[in-house]
Amino acid sequence: MSHPALVIWLGLGCSFAAVNTAWADEPLARVQGDLPKELRDQLILTIGQVDEAPRSTAQARRRAGKVVEKAESILRSQGYYESVIDVQIGTISEDGFSWGDRNEKSRDALTPVLLIEPGPRFQFSTLDVNFGENVPESSDALRKMVSDNEGNPAISAQVVASELRVVNKLKGQGYPDVEALPRKAVVDHATDSMAVDYIVSTGRKTRFGEIKQTGSAYIKESWPDMISPFEPGELYEQSKINKLSSRAIGAGVFESATASLEEGGTENADGTITRNVLLNIEQGDKNTISGEVGYSTADGSGVSASYERRNFIGYAQTLTLTAIAKTNLQSLGVDYNIPYAWRVDRELDLAAEAARENSEFFRGERVGIDALMTQKISSKFKVSAGIGVEASQFKVEEDDATKTRSYLVQATGGAVYDSRDNIFDPSKGIFVEANALPTYNFGDDKGAYVIGELGGSTYQKVSEKFIAAVRAKYGSIFGAGIAAVPLNQRFYGGGGGSVRGYSYQSISPRDAEGETIGGRSILEGSAEIRYRGHDGLFDGNLGFVGFIDAATVGSEEFPDFDTTQYGAGFGVRYFTSFAPIRADIAFPINKRPGDDAFQIYISIGQAF
User: Fold this and answer.
1) How far apart are CA 607 and CA 496, in angstroms?
2) Could you tell me if residue 25 is inside a domain?
3) Are residues 197 and 333 both part of a single domain?
4) pLDDT at residue number 300
5) Please, which residues bridge with residue 260 across strands?
């Protein structure tokens, strides 16, 4: 081996040539030696930094001595079991770096240095697993999984990772009580190698028994079996125990849910034992009353209140009663939701509402009842189907004689694909939604029509601080003429969820008297550039957005691009732990007579 001082001197001759005496964010001790880059970086990160230079040679030596043990631990963890570390002190001055203690009157900065010769990197020789008396059927495969690392560098993290893989595999093969006992590792300095013998106690092979519900929640006896991911008699799998508790808490009506195996068990003829599962569910609050008071120039001002009754008959269902009293909407509604409707991947929602609408562009009353079944295909994709009835009467003028009555029977079919990482503040992924509503109107203007909508958004992280977001929506009403479609089911553009800069529902075809009457087609689009720093002002909680929106609403089945309205603006985001608070100001680009000069929007979550 070469002399440590010679190796270090060659390195320091270059690295200290342009060093000044500033010690801000300097390492506690410098690392020198013929080291792989990744190992050097890991040592530097582990050693840490200081704010000021040592005040004396003794303090410099103490600092270097403190990190020797850390450095040795890192070297061993990476397979270097014959490394040599020497502690030296040098000084940095305008003339460069020099070894040895400084003169007491000198102002040169002291430099603690670790001179490291890593030595050879040890490799794994033999890797084996000892299962004791209860040898699992998969023992050969488990041993091979471990022995595949033979010949690789003897990295300690790999030893632990292999042990965890063996234990987790066995937990998925019917062994709930498996545990790793202290392993035997032998380092052979003669061959620069390490042999490891894992010792694993499997415990008894176990099968699932019945589910017994405990805790304060009242649930029907059939409900735990319905949400269970396993059948009695199946071999134990840890992932299925975890899934059972997550499905219970995923109903959204319980405070907590945990699943575990009952102590003891019943012996089986094949040598396994059967153990029941304890599902502990705590109810928490069953009743919730909430209210809201708000002011809005676009959506109406007033109050709303809601009452929720959860799990009142033992199927994790929720009954919600709502009342709204705003300047442009007064309504009473009831919603009954069953999160697991006979299957864990199916949801049923029953709703009824009576409302009086008094928007800027139309007014009237409606009463409706509908049922919607949603089927989850995967974690990102779901489809839905439903049916509803609605009776309404709306008008665009003050004269009651102009009211048009509609009696609708409406089916619903839809699909949603959602891979966004966060619904309130997405930074990646896509969202696509398609809906079709076949409808027949038995009212004053009879006819059949279909409302079709397709929309989506996508998000791309341009850099660490910038995100590009794009949204588009297309809708069309096919079939009967526009008169058969009630005013509240036609298309409108404008507002915070459409084209910012224009008032709510103001982008629309108009009749001969200039009244807004809604359209049979719509095409919308939005683009945003979102900025958020991760430090600095407000500790990185402040962000900014620039955006442009556009929409055209046509009186025919396909949009008329000659009537496209554009809006643009900028906004501020304050990021909380829950969701960003949004404040936007937007301006109409091709302003029409009667349009305001700007619009302001404040809400929770990104615009889309």
Assistant:
1) 7
2) yes
3) no
4) 65
5) 278
